[in-house]
Amino acid sequence: MTARLDEAAVAYEGNTAHIPTKPVALAHVVTLPLTPTLQPPPESYPTLVAALLQRAHHRLLSGGWCSGALVDEDGARCLLGAIRAEARGDSGLEASAASVLLDAIRRKFGDHVDSVPSFNDAHGTGRVPLRMLDQAAHLADARGL
Question: Of the four, 25, 46, 50, 111, which is 20 to 30 A from 58 by CA?
Fold first, then answer.
């Protein structure tokens, strides 16, 4: 099959070589931004813990996610670093948010997850950790926290 496709490609090039074409300027074709733009955060949850988790999620979306440190040299944060920054010194609120996040993680990945930092550091990208932070905000809101 590969040989047939190669033959067809050569035949196509030979049959269309005489047709004049104009180069296409992509600036006239591509009208959307090449990088996604961040939207403002959605309306906040009415409960403290859910709102904190939602703010932490937005912070990671806008400021970046990292692993291996609470905050890296570029200012990106891990899950716990984002929660800590959004808790603004309220250690009780921070602990409640981390507890709900760990509950959400264990619901999805089982009880073998030891802690939020170990879960965060087990991932190479922030896709799954960010999704879990969003799910934890929904869980906290459902619990009235």
Answer: 111
